[in-house]
């Protein structure tokens, strides 16, 4: 009789404890926005960052039950939008798509902003660069292009983004890693991946180093030829294109990334609520289908790992920028 | 078009979506400061829940109507909806002031529908071939094309050649603000981060046209006692009048629509350049060129048909190569990808139902646009009954809010005010406003493409004549410049002779 009482009592206490613990666990990371959230995208409508962010914004909007308004704050090679994200009130009503440029802009002297001025929440997309030529190009591999460029420095041209932009670093860093002059293939600045591919198709440049995912369609349909994927593993959708890691002695790779981040100094409670929600909606079939349609893989990386990745990227990209003499 | 697709496009739900999108596009387009791009961007979240064909139909219907609806604010308030409408905004607004607002707007509507339909028909026939040409445009060709557009601005301007040229230079000077693409150096930004990206054309357009108009109205209020001057004409008469006008210029319509589609397909600012070239050509071949810029229905018809035809054209490179020609098609490509459809050269073979659906929606949207547009015109022309003394501050409010909405910064409001003053002073001195807008729009395009071309050619000017298309465009542009210089010299000589005659 006493024993049963005791067990009952113990059981009740345990239950009570459990309940308390449960409420405490639920109390963490359950902040919810009560009005519309502004989602800042530092790049133009229609690009990869825009598409990923709009999709994520609409899923977050369903999750939280408030509208997420995507605003494209373009300009200044990404400075305008990134500043707008970093300097917003960290109250959870402004988030944004911080991209890899947060780790390059300050090295080339565009801004003082670094990854320490924002609060990383979750990784949205990893976008490895490609090495793409026109379908009727005489070149059959990255090595052939490099050899030609070594023999005729400055004759070949490449494009993909502005001077010092991420795809420029992909090319110049690759040349530098292979012990070549980063100017051996001249960089022609462009307004973005679309105009660069237009130039390539029109015969205005010889190579583009935009994201392979952006060139995927035109490669599949035989208009362009992919020579190298600047990643450690081949792209599932284009398995015939070798990676630069396997082909080049230096094993060079380069990927841009898109993140969901908040302004600097965001309340950890708000940040982890966003992290939880973002990781949840990115683990759905809807998101997987969206990713598959763009030939990309789903990546799930939370705040802590993302912060570490940013530190690592900042170092590596800084080294590249210094090596090619663009650091200011 | 296969019967299945025909049924999908004409299915009641799809028709309903097109109709809703048409109303929506009409509303967004008519509100000063809101653009077709914005309308489509706001539409994207809704397309997630739609099937592919309704999703495309919605986007197509929204853009088509939004571009036409830009003429409503252009005609009534002198705030053009797009740079493409800026070419003929003076004509349309003058007609409105003369009491023909409805007729002018109906002309805009009918010609927009005609242009839209012609554009689609051309696309259905030769989209792949047209895309081939568009895709072979490198920075050299784009440079010449933009130069050609600027040249047309001088021919178009209501004033003399030197005055139009002055206006153009003001526009180009404004365009030089911001980071330049080649070396990434900021110019004339005075440390204001918002100016890094340059002065965007929406606040500029609102300032130059609308705010300067407000200033002039305020100045004239005292002089003109009749507060309500512009009671517009009866609906029936306006419709009949507009119909007669449209029928009167079949040649202008055909030329503008075809040209709009072809030039619209080219990368860069295709649609804008298309409207200006069409307008300039219409003036060149018109029996009454002196009326252009001063209330010419023919000018409205030329520009109105051409910019709607260009929307269809802009889809060509997007659809055939997945390379968007403008921001609207860039968003549309994103939606297509989301729906598991990959634009590319094989899209006509692999997914004929998609391309037919797209063309079908274009046709249907252009037809539904007519009744919706008529309603919008009837509703909106009531603003004309509002006394000017009340209207002026409302326009000012709309201008400032619109500019703020598009850029999201207070800097845009200052741009409107500053450029409004500039516009006012220009008009006081007989300098036409329209060429300045084209200067702002094309200035950046010309500079970027010039710098990129020079980097490519390593400073060799002959690079601009090395390629097939660039050689043709270059010679055409230089030829026109030669003609212009001759015309200017003749004008100056004549003016000099006249002055001498008077002094005797």
UniProtKB/TrEMBL annotation, chain A:
Top-level taxon of origin: Bacteria
Signal peptide: 1-27
Transmembrane segments: none
Keyword annotations: Receptor, Signal
CDD domains: PBP2_Bug_TTT
A Pfam family that the UniProt record links to this protein: TctC
InterPro entries: BUG, Bug_dom1
SUPFAM superfamilies hit by this protein: Periplasmic binding protein-like II
PANTHER family the record matches: BLR1237 PROTEIN, TRICARBOXYLATE-BINDING PROTEIN
Family recorded in the similarity comment: Belongs to the UPF0065 (bug) family.
Name of the protein this chain belongs to: Tripartite-type tricarboxylate transporter, receptor component TctC
Automatic annotation (TrEMBL), chain B:
Pfam assignment, any one: TctA
Domain of life: Bacteria
Keywords from the named record: Membrane, Transmembrane, Transmembrane helix
Location of the DUF112 domain: 15-438
Parts of the chain that traverse the membrane: 15-44, 104-127, 133-158, 165-183, 195-215, 318-338, 358-384, 396-425, 469-489
InterPro entries: DUF112_TM
Protein name: TctA family transporter
Species in which this protein is naturally found: Tropicimonas sediminicola
Taxonomic lineage: Bacteria, Pseudomonadati, Pseudomonadota, Alphaproteobacteria, Rhodobacterales
């Amino acid at each position: 009789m006493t024993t049963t009482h005791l067990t009952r009592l113990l059981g009740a206490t345990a239950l009570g404890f459990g309940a308390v613990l449960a409420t405490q666990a639920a109390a963490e990371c359950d902040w919810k926005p009560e009005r519309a959230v502004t989602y800042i995208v530092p790049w133009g409508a229609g690009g990869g960052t825009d598409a990923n962010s709009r999709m994520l914004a609409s899923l977050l909007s369903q999750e939280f039950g408030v509208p997420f308004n995507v605003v494209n704050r373009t300009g200044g090679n990404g400075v305008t939008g990134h500043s707008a994200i970093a300097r917003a009130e960290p109250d959870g009503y402004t988030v944004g798509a911080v991209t890899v440029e947060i780790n390059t802009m300050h090295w080339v002297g565009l801004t003082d902003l670094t990854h320490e001025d924002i609060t990383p929440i979750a990784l949205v997309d990893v976008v490895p660069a490609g090495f793409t030529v026109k379908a009727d190009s005489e070149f059959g591999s990255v090595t052939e292009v490099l050899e030609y460029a070594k023999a005729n420095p400055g004759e070949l041209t490449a494009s993909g983004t502005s001077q010092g932009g991420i795809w420029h670093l992909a090319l110049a860093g690759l040349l530098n890693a292979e012990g070549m002059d980063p100017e051996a293939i001249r960089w022609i600045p462009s307004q973005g991946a679309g105009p660069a591919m237009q130039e390539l198709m029109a015969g205005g440049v010889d190579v583009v180093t935009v994201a392979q995912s952006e060139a995927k369609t035109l490669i599949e349909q035989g208009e362009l030829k992919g020579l190298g994927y600047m990643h450690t593993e081949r792209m599932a959708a284009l398995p015939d294109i070798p990676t630069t890691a396997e082909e080049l002695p230096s094993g060079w790779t380069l990927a841009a990334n898109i993140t969901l981040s908040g302004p600097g100094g965001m309340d950890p409670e708000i940040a982890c609520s966003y992290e939880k929600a973002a990781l949840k909606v990115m683990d759905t079939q809807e998101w997987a289908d969206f990713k598959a349609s763009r030939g990309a893989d789903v990546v799930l990386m939370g705040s802590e790992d993302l912060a570490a990745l940013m530190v690592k990227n900042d170092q590596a990209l800084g080294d590249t920028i210094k090596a090619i003499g663009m650091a200011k | 078009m296969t019967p299945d697709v025909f049924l999908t496009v004409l299915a009641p739900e799809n028709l309903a979506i097109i109709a809703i999108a048409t109303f929506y596009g009409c509303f967004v387009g008519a509100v000063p400061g809101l653009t077709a791009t914005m309308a489509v961007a706001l539409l994207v979240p809704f397309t997630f829940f739609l099937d592919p064909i309704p999703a495309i139909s919605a986007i197509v219907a929204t853009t088509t109507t939004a571009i036409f609806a830009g003429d409503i604010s252009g005609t009534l308030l002198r705030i053009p909806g797009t740079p493409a409408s800026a070419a003929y905004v003076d004509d349309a607004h003058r007609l409105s002031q003369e009491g023909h607002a409805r007729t002018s707007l109906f002309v805009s509507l009918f010609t927009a529908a005609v242009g839209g339909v012609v554009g689609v028909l051309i696309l259905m026939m030769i989209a792949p071939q047209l895309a081939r040409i568009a895709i072979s445009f490198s920075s050299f060709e784009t440079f010449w094309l933009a130069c050609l557009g600027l040249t047309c601005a001088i021919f178009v301007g209501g004033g003399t050649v030197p005055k139009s040229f002055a206006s153009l230079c003001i526009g180009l000077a404004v365009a030089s603000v911001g980071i330049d693409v080649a070396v990434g150096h900021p110019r004339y930004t005075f440390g204001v981060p918002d100016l890094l990206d340059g002065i965007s054309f929406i606040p500029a357009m609102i300032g130059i046209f609308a705010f300067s108009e407000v200033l002039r109205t305020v100045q004239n209020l005292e002089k003109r006692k009749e507060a309500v001057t512009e009671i517009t004409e009866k609906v029936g008469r306006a419709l009949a009048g507009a119909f007669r006008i449209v029928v009167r210029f079949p040649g202008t319509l055909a030329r503008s629509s075809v040209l709009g589609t072809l030039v619209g397909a080219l990368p860069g600012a295709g649609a804008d350049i298309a409207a200006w070239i069409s307008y300039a050509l219409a003036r060149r071949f018109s029996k009454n060129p002196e009326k252009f810029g001063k209330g010419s229905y023919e000018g409205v018809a030329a520009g109105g048909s051409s910019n709607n035809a260009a929307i269809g054209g802009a889809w060509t490179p997007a659809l055939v190569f997945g390379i968007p020609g403008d921001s609207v098609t860039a968003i549309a490509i994103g939606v297509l990808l989301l729906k598991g459809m990959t634009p590319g050269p094989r899209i006509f073979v692999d997914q004929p139902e998609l391309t037919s659906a797209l063309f079908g929606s274009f046709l249907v949207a252009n037809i539904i646009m007519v009744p919706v547009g008529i309603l919008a015109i009837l509703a909106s022309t009531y603003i004309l009954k509002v006394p000017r003394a009340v209207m002026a501050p409302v326009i000012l409010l709309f201008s400032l809010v619109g500019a703020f909405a598009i850029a999201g910064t207070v800097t845009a409001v200052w741009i409107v005010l500053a450029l409004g003053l500039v516009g006012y002073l220009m008009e006081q001195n007989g300098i036409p406003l329209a060429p300045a807008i084209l200067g702002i729009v094309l200035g950046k395009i010309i500079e970027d493409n010039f710098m990129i071309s020079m980097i490519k050619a390593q400073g060799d000017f002959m690079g601009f004549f090395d390629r097939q298309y660039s050689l043709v465009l270059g010679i055409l542009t230089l030829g026109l410049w030669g003609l212009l210089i001759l015309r200017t010299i003749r004008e100056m000589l004549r003016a000099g002779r006249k002055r001498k005659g008077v002094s005797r």
